[in-house]
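Entry 12.
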Amino acid sequence: MNSGTTNTIMAQELAQKKESFTVITNNLAAISILMQNNNIKLIAVGGHVDSLENSTYGSVCEHEFGAYYPDIAFLSINAVSDTEGFTDFRLYELGIIKLLAERAKKVIAVMDSSKLGKRSRKKVLAPDDVDILVMDDNIPTEKKKHYKSKGFNIE
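Predicted 3D structure (tokens):
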């Protein structure tokens, strides 16, 4: 799980689970939420601290993430369009997103529907790099069908 506000919300959902599982993250806000559940084994990835994003980043962070092969990567990404794919403005986060997408068995991008059809600063992933795009229900049916025809699996 990388940094980002949507993954912080995801952490709130995960913290309610009764099952035991492991979360590896650089998201400091998510860490403070997830550590409330004793069933969750939590691995905090270090690096430089970004106080605005409430996360860690940099070569140490990427090196530590690189030691793991997650079953699922939950990636909070800033924007997605049918022509540009997945893009983000957090330049320090791009390497982390790419690394997790390459190593995970399953890649789930998480974002709210206001980011659909948008483009941010730099391309980070192609549509086929992501298995599932999880969004809220505020997507018009026609728009959802259009993205599905372009290879996006929106849930």
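Annotation: Residues 25 and 44 are 5 Å apart (CA to CA). The longest strand covers residues 21-25.
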